[in-house]
Amino acid sequence: MTSHVSSVSRDQRVSQIVLFGLFLIGGLSIYLLGNNWTSMFPTNTSTVYKISLPIIFLILAVALHWSKSLKPYWPIAFALFIGAFANWLNWTLGNWLKYVLPMASTTAEELMIDKLSQCIPVVLAILVLTRLSGNDLGSIFLKKGNLQPNVALFARFPPEADEGAWVVKQALDIGLMGVIFNGVDTRAQGLAAVQSMRYPQLKGSRYFEPAGRRGAAPTLATWLWGLSTDEYERHADLWPLNPAGDLLAIVMIESVEGLKNLNDILSVPGIGAVFLGNANDLRHSMGVPADAPEVEAARQTILKGCLAHKVACGITVASGAEMVKRLNEGWKMIRATVETIRDGRALQPNAG
After folding, report:
1. pLDDT confidence bin for 33, thresholds 50/70/90
2. Which of 118, 144, 223, 278 is the most buried (most CB within 10 A)?
3. How many other C-beta atoms can be found within 10 angstroms of the C-beta atom of residue 106?
4. What pLDDT score does 7 carry?
5. Phi-psi region of 226 (alpha: psi -120 to 50; beta: other; left: phi over 0)
6. Which CATH number is associated with domain 154-316?
7. Cα–Cα–Cα angle for 11, 17, 19, nearest 5°?
8. DSSP bridge partners of 181
9. Domain boundaries in the chain?
């Protein structure tokens, strides 16, 4: 699956919002606390306190700059150093701004000038931070260059694959990257799942079939993915059917009928993965207990079919040892607890 192309204009708008928010919060905090700052924080008037802050932030900035994992955050510490240094300089020189601006004639005007003088360190810190982050403050917080979350968003819905097109459409329109379809028993249901996730293709498309039936209203999805509408529509297709696609259709085989029609289901272009889970529904359909050998045989049949069709196959595991075993067998998707995954990685460091 390809990585998304970031939307520069969208990130810039987010950066402007973040910039304005920081300025507003900083400015209001200084304005509201200005008169009471000394009484609330008596040490703030200490010379040692004033000069120690810039030194601490400067040391922190240097340390972050030399750190491999934390280097992206050094501009924040350096900007805080500039702000703290400006605050110390402002305190050392006194309210110098009154010598620059026209003479204040009232106490209110003097107070306003005093508050404006206190805002200058905050403004300097924001300007420095913005400059060091390449005129894009948001890039420090959105290190991927877009609005994508750090995880792929998937969901499983109650309706069966051939009954849930309306749910799938709404789920994709709010930004999901994939859908897990319950109880796919036939090729027709697998085809319905794929069609519900695809837009009707443009004339001349290299991947025209299966014909898509998804409606188009991706405003929220474009925001979450950090893409323009055109960019989103280029990526909002099923992988591996479309190598540029960033959506994944996952089907669940949960019945004897689904097991019988496995090859027909897996032959549907656009199905990217099969998820078996604990095989509870499947073993109930088979009429056997969970530890019956027929259940494990069914698991292996599904895995063999997935490998033959080059479709990823997923399973639930209950221990680290089972996780390693399933990975070695060829299962590509593992659902487990954090502790189980940790145990499995300890047993086989290259397990994922």
Report:
1. very low
2. 118
3. 8
4. 39
5. left
6. 3.20.20.60
7. 100
8. 251
9. 8-141, 154-316
Distances (CA, A) of 2 to 10, 85, 238, 247, 273: 20, 45, 11, 10, 17
Span 225-274, pLDDT tens digits = 878 888 888 899 999 999 989 999 999 999 999 999 999 999 999 999 99
pLDDT at 35 over 50: no
Place of tokens 């000038």: 113
Least Cα distance to 4 among 221, 274, 271, 312 occurs for 221
CA distances from 58 to 63, 71, 84, 85, 171 (A): 9, 14, 10, 10, 47
Secondary structure string (H, E, C) spanning the chain:
CCCCCCCHHHHHHHHHHHHHHHHHHHHHHHHHHCCCHHHHCHHHHCHHHHHHHHHHHHHHHHHHHHCCCCHHHHHHHHHHHHHHHHHHHHHHHCCCHHHHCCCCCCHHHHHHHHHHHHHHHHHHHHHHHHHHCCCCCHHHHCCCCCCCCCCCCEEEEEEECCCCHHHHHHHHHCCCCEEEEECCCCHHHHHHHHHHHCCCCCCCCCCCCCCCCCCCCCHHHHHHHCCCHHHHHHHCCECCCCCCCCEEEEECCCCHHHHHCHHHHHCCCCEEEEECCCCHHHHHHHCCCCCCHHHHHHHHHHHHHHHHHCCEEEEECCCHHHHHHHHHHCCCEEECCHHHHHHHHHHCHHHC
Nearby residues of 325 by Cβ (< 8 Å), 6 or more positions away: none
Using CA atoms, how far residue 38 sits from 33, 35, 85, 118, in Å, is 9, 7, 18, 13
Q: How many residues does the chain have?
A: 352
Residues 57-71 have pLDDT tens digits of 788 888 878 877 777
Which pair of structure tokens corresponds to residue 15?
A: 């950066």
> Which tokens hold the place of 95?
């309210």
- How far apart, in Å, are the Cα atoms of 215 and each of 2, 83, 173, 218, 251? 23, 50, 9, 9, 21
Contact, 273 vs 333, CB < 8 A?
A: yes
pTM over 0.90: no
Tell me the C-alpha distance between 44 and 26, whole Å. Answer: 17
For residue 187, the Cα-to-chain-centroid distance in whole angstroms is 33
Residue 161: both structure tokens together? 């694959």
